[in-house]
Amino acid sequence: MSQSISSTDITSLHMTCDKVVKLGIFSPAGPTQNMKVFIPRCCLNADSGWLVGWQDEDLKIVCIFSVLHPTSGLKISDARNLLQSESERGAYKLGILGKWVNTTENPVQEVPSNSVSNLLQDCWVELIKDDTDIPHVDPQGNWNNHVTQNDPRILIVYDQAHILKSAFQVVDLINTANQSDFDVAFSALRCHRCFFEEQSGLQLTHSKSANNKRASVTSRILAPIWTLLCLIQLAARTIVKICRSSCLSRIYQNEVFCSVVQYPTVGSQVALRLGHLSTVIRYGETSVGTKGSNHNSQHYRGRVCDLALSLVLDVLLGVAVFLFLSKGNYTKTLATNLIPFADYVASELQALLHWLMGAPAGLKLNRPLDEFLGRFFLYHIQLWIGYLYILRPYLELITWCIGLSGCLGMSVLLALASDTLSMLTFHIYCFYVYAARLYRLQLYGLGSLWRLFTGKKWNPLRQRVDSCQYNVDQLFLGTLLFTILLFLLPTTALYYVVFTAFRMAVLILQGVLTKVITTISSFPLFSVLLQLCNGESMAGGITFQVLPQVEDRPLCLSVQVVPVTMATVLERHSLQQTGQEELTSWSMLGRKLLTGDLIYPWGGNKP
Amino acid sequence: MPWRKVLYEDQGYPDNYVDSSFLEQMQKNLNTRSYDYWNTVYESGAVTDHISATCLFVVTFVYLEAGVLSPKLLILLTVASCFLGYIAYAACAVHLGETVQKSHLWIVIRSAVVFLLFTFSLSPILYTLTESVSTDTIYAMTVFMFLGNILVFDYGTTAAIVSESMSFNLAMFGSMCLASRLTTVLHTFSIVSFAVEVFALWPELRRKVQATHRGCKMGVSCGSVLASVYALWTVSTVAAVLLGSVHFVVTFLCPRWLIQLQPYKNNIQGPWDEVNIVDKMEVRKML
Amino acid sequence: MVHHVCMVSDFFFPNTGGVESHIYQLSQCLLQRGHKVVVITHAYGRRTGVRYLTNNLKVYYLPLLVAYNQCILPTLFATLPIVRYILLRERITIVHGHSAFSALAHEAMFHASTMGISTVFTDHSLFGFADASSIITNKILKFSLADVQHVICVSHTSKENTVLRAALSPHKVYVVPNAVDSTVFTPDPSQQRSDRVTVVVMSRLVYRKGIDLLAGIIPELCGRHPDVHFLIGGDGPKRILLEEVREQYQLHDRVQLLGSVSHEDVRDILVQGDIFLNTSLTEAFCIAIVEAESCGLQVVSTRIGGVPEVLPDELIYLAEPSVASLLVALETAVDDKRRGWTISPRERHERISTMYTWQDVARRTETVYDATAELPSSSLADRIYRYSHSGSGWLLFVLLLVLGNYLFWQLLEILVPRRNIELVPSQVAKSPRREPT
C-alpha cells in the first residue's frame, strides 16, 4: 500500500490549467528552462529498480509510469516484450528511462547493471531516495545536452488512478491551441491505459497498489451506450443515403430556399435537428472504432453522444404526446373549441374598442381621432373573423398534423404550435405595428418641433443641437403643428399602450414555448448523466500542493484532479453554443416601449 | 527688505504674512451705469406696451367667445389694421431714410399666403383639439404661456433669458389653446390671425415707431395702456384695477426701485478674473 | 511634532492631473519627514478598498456614488459613518482637504470638525464672482471654510481670491506654491535643432486655456517667420478650431497636433521645443510653465492670474492676453533664440530645481500643521457662532446641518463605540528589503 505524503505543506496552491500556464512556471509546451519529472505516488517508496515510462527530450518531460524491480529471473527479453507491446500505441513510445535507487530499504539493493541496462536510452535519469521525503534527481547521459546543472528541476507526484479515471476533460476549447506540459504528460498516461490494467508476469510497482483497480469503470459505463448509438447510427445512415440520392439534395443547397424555409420557427427547428443528426452520422462514418485519446476528440465524442441522446429523447417525447393526443381524441375537441374561442376573443376586442372610443377611465381623448382609429381597427377585426371562417373546415386536419409532427420530435411539435399561435394572432400583430408606427411618428415630430419651440435645431454635421434663427412663418407653422401633435398624443398613446399589451402577452406565450424548445434542443443529457453517475470521470482542472521543501532537492508538487461541477457541465456542454441571441436587457426593452420602437420576438429568427 | 508679490524666492516673511498692498489690485463696480429716473420711465414703456397688447388680445377672445364680436368683423378689423400698420411702417421707414425694397414686399406677401393657407386648412382640427380637456386647465396653461411670453420677450436688451423665437412660440401656443375653446372654424381662424397680428406684427411696428420719434412712441404707449384698461373694465372691474396697478408699478415704481438698489451693487474685479479676449479674429467665426 | 494627516479629495490616482500629483507628491515628502499620511478618495471603477502606494502610502478608495465631473454625490450625512471610522482607526489629528470642486473634501472636513479634529484646506483654482454657478459655489465655500482652521493657497493672487470668496481673515491663509519634480523634467540638449525654432503648447484645448488666441497667433507667426514650427499636445473641444486654421493656411508640415498626451510622455514632448507658449485666460499658479522652464525652454505667457508671481522677469516673457501683444512677445523670444541671447537650458533647470521643490512645500505645509495643532479646540457653541457669522446665509438651515451632523455623530459614538474600533498600529520605517537570492 502506498504511503501518502505527509500533508504538512506550507502552501497549497489551487489553480486550474489556464492559471498555471499564466504563472510562467509551467509554460505552454515548448522549450522551457525547467525539467519536469512525473512520478506516481506509489513509486516514491518503492524498492530499487528500473524506471519505466515515456520521455521527451525537447520538452524536458520525464513521465515515469512504474518501477521495474530486478528479480533474479528478470530477462531482457521479458522487458523488451513489455515495452514493445505498448510501443505500438500511438506517438508515445515507452522506454526504460533510468534507475531508481532507494537507499533507505533494508538491505540496500544495488540496481544490477545487467542486460536490462542495455535498454537504457541515451538520456536517462537517476533518482536516489534517501531519508528525506523528496528524492534526488540526477540526469545522466545525453540529458546534459538539454539541461544544465543550474536549470531548476521540478518533481510532480501524481495519482495514476485519478488521472486515468478522468477520461472526459471538460476543458475550455479556446485554450486548446497551447497544450501545456500537463496535457502532454496526461495524454501519454491515458494512451497507455492498458499498461496499467494488464497483469504481466514482471514485478511492477503499480500492480501492487490497489488503486488501479477502479480505473476501468468509465469504460464499463461507456460500452452499452456506445453500442446503442452505433445501432442508431446505422439506421440513420441508410435513411440519409436514400435522401441524398434523390435530387432533393440540390434544392437543399440553395440559399434562398434555406432562408425561406427557416423563416418560421418550425422550419428553423427542423433544420437545427437535421444538423444535429448529420453531425452524429458524420462522426459515425469517419471514426468508427478508433478511440482517440486526444482530449479534443474526447470532447467531440462526448458532444456527439449528447446530440444523439437528445435526439432520441426528443423523438420519444414527441411520439408519446402524439399517441396521447390521438388516443384521447383531443385533436377533434381542440379543433371544435377553437372557433368559438376565437369568436369570443373577437367580440371582446370589439367591446374594448367601443370602450376606447368613448371616454375610457376619464382620459382626455380627442374625439374625432379616437373615432377614426376605433373604426379603423374595428374594420380589421371584421376581416380577421372572416379569415377564421374560411379556415374552419380545415382546422381539424391542421391540429391532427401538428400532433403528427410530434413524431419528428417534441421540439418540432412545440415549434409548430408556436407558429400556429402566431398565425392565429396575426391581427394583433398588425394592430400593434400600426399603433407603434403612428406613436413613433408622433413622438419624433414632437421632439423635432420642441426644438423649434425653444429656438434650436439639430445639426447633423456636428451631431449636436445648435441654436437657430427661424422666420416668423416657420415659427408659426411649427407651433401650430406642435400644439396639434401635443394634444393628439394621449389618444395615440392610449391605443399604442393597449395594443402593445396584447402583443406583449402573445410574445410572452411564444417566448415560453421558445424557451422550452431551446432547453430541449440544448440539454446535454449524456454529460449530465455521466456527471451524476460517475462524477470523478469528468475533470475540471488540477490542484497543486507544494510539499515541504528540502535543501538541494527539486521543488516537489503533488497534483490532483478536481472534479467538475454540474453548473460547468451544463454551461460548457450545452448543445447550442453559438447563435444564441442575448435577451435584450430590461432597460433596453423599456426604452423601446417608450419610444415606440417595434419589439421583435425573443430568440427567434423572425424579423 | 520690502515684501514683493513673488513666489520664486524666500523673502524671509512667514507664509501667512498680510502686506499693506493686499487686495490693492481689486476694483469694485467697474462697469456700473448710473440711471436717470425719467429716462428709465420712458424705457419701461416697452414692457407696458407689450402687457397691454396681450391684455387686448385676451379681451378680444372674451368678446369672441361670448358671441358679442362676430368672427367676420374680427377678420375685417385684422385685415384693415394690417394694411394701415403696413403703411405706417413704410412711413416710418421713409422717415428714417431706409428704402422699402420690392423683395421685402414679396417676402411679406409670401409669408401672409403661407400663414393663411395653413391656418385655414388646420383650423378644423384646431377647434376640436381640446374638447375633452377642462376649461380650467386650458385657462391656466394660457396664463402661463402669456406670462412666459412677457418674461422672455425681446424688449431691446441683451440678457441671457431673452429668446425671440421662444417668446413668439409661447404666445402662439397660448392663443391656440384659447382658439381651441371656440365653436366654429371661422372663430378659430379669426382669433389665430388676430394673434399673429398682435404678437408678430405689432411689436415690429412698435420698434419702428420707437426708432422714429420719441413723442410718437409715448403717444402710442399711453394710447395702448388706456385702451387695454378700458377694454378690461368692460369685462371685469377687478381685472381692470389689477391691470392699472400693474402698469403703475412697472412704469413708476420699478425704476425707482432699480435706482435705489444701485448702491448695493458689489461687482468685484481683479487679476483673478478670466479675461475677455479683446480682439476677435475672423478665424473664430469659422466655428 | 509628528502629525497624523489625512488627505481627502475626489481627485487622486488613477486619475492624472495637477491636484492628483500635488496630493501624491506632498504625501510622499511628508512621509519622508516622518509624519503619517493617509489618503481618502472615492472608488475608481473596480479599484475600491484599501490600496498601498509607494512608501506604504495608504489610500482608502471609498465605494461612493460618483455623480458629476469625477465628484461624489454630496449627501453630507451618508459619509459620516465611514469617514469617522477611518479617522478614528488611523488616529488622525489633521484632515487636509484639497480642491474646492471636491464634494468629498468638503464633507470630510465638515465631519472632522464635528468630531473635533483640526482641518486644513488647500485651494488650487481661481474663481469668478459674477455668474450663477460662481455665486452658488462661493456660498458653499463660505459655509465650508467657516470652520476650517487654516487655508493654503498656491499663489498670492489665489490668496486674495479665496479671501474675498469665502470672507476669511487673511491671516488664516498661507501661501505655499506648487512644485515640480525637477529630476523628471530635465533638459535634453541632443534634441536641439539649429534649423528651426519649435514652439510647444501643452494644455487641454478648451476656451479658458486661450486656444482662440493661439488660433490667431499661429498663422501670423508662421507667415512672418518661415523657420517657426508649432508642436501642440492635448485634446479638447477646441481642437477643431486649430485643425481648421491649419487647413486654411496650409500649415500641415509646420503645425503638429499630437492629441492627448499621457503624463509620462510630457517631458519627452517638451524637450523637443525651444519656446513654451501659454495662452491661458486664467490660472492660479500654472505649473506647466515651471515644468517647461525646468526642461530648459524659454517661456512666453499671458499676464493673468498668478503667473507674474511664478517666475522672475529674466526667465519669462509676459504679454497681455491679446493676439498682438503675444505676437510681440513671441517674436522677441524667437529673436533672442536666433541670436543666442538666451539663458542656457542647463542654467534654467538649475535655477528651477532650487526654486520649487516638493521638499520645500512639505516643510512649509508642516509649518501650517504645527500652527494648526497649536490652536485651541472649539466647542459646538463656538462652531455655531462661526457659522452664523460666515455670511453663508440661511442661518436656520446651517444650524440644522451642523446640529444634525453633531447628533448623528453622537449616535454613532453609541452604536459603534470607540473601544470596538481596532486602531491601526503605527508603522516603523523598515530597512530596504533584500532581494531574493
Automatic annotation (TrEMBL), chain A:
Segments crossing the lipid bilayer: 304-325, 372-390, 397-417, 437-454, 475-498, 504-530
One GO term (biological process): GPI anchor biosynthetic process
Sorted UniProt keywords: Membrane, Transmembrane, Transmembrane helix
GO CC terms: endoplasmic reticulum; membrane
The keyword Membrane is assigned to this record: yes
Cited Pfam families: Gpi1 (PF05024)
Protein name as annotated: Phosphatidylinositol N-acetylglucosaminyltransferase subunit Q-like isoform X1
Organism, as annotated: Branchiostoma floridae
Annotated gene: LOC118429549
TrEMBL record, chain B:
Membrane-topology annotation of the record: Multi-pass membrane protein
Biological process according to GO: GPI anchor biosynthetic process
This protein's record includes keyword Transmembrane helix: yes
Subcellular location: Membrane
Source superkingdom: Eukaryota
Family: Belongs to the PIGC family.
Protein's name according to its UniProt entry: Phosphatidylinositol N-acetylglucosaminyltransferase subunit C-like isoform X1
Provenance organism: Branchiostoma floridae (Florida lancelet)
Classification of source organism: Eukaryota, Metazoa, Chordata, Cephalochordata, Leptocardii
UniProtKB/TrEMBL annotation, chain C:
Record domain PIGA GPI anchor biosynthesis: where: 42-131
UniProt entry keywords in alphabetical sequence: Glycosyltransferase, GPI-anchor biosynthesis, Membrane, Transferase, Transmembrane, Transmembrane helix
UniProt xrefs under InterPro entries: Glyco_trans_1 (IPR001296), PIG-A/GPI3 (IPR039507), PIGA_GPI_anchor_biosynthesis (IPR013234)
MF terms in GO: phosphatidylinositol N-acetylglucosaminyltransferase activity
Pathway: Glycolipid biosynthesis; glycosylphosphatidylinositol-anchor biosynthesis
Glycosyltransferase in keyword set: yes
Enzyme kind, highest EC tier: transferase
Organism domain of life: Eukaryota
Membrane spanning stretches: 60-83, 393-412
Signal peptide bounds: none
Cellular component, GO, one term: glycosylphosphatidylinositol-N-acetylglucosaminyltransferase (GPI-GnT) complex
Domain Glycosyl transferase family, chain residue ranges per copy: 191-337
Entry EC no(s): 2.4.1.198
UniProt protein name: phosphatidylinositol N-acetylglucosaminyltransferase
Species of origin: Branchiostoma floridae
Phylogenetic lineage: Eukaryota, Metazoa, Chordata, Cephalochordata, Leptocardii
Gene expressing this chain: LOC118407333
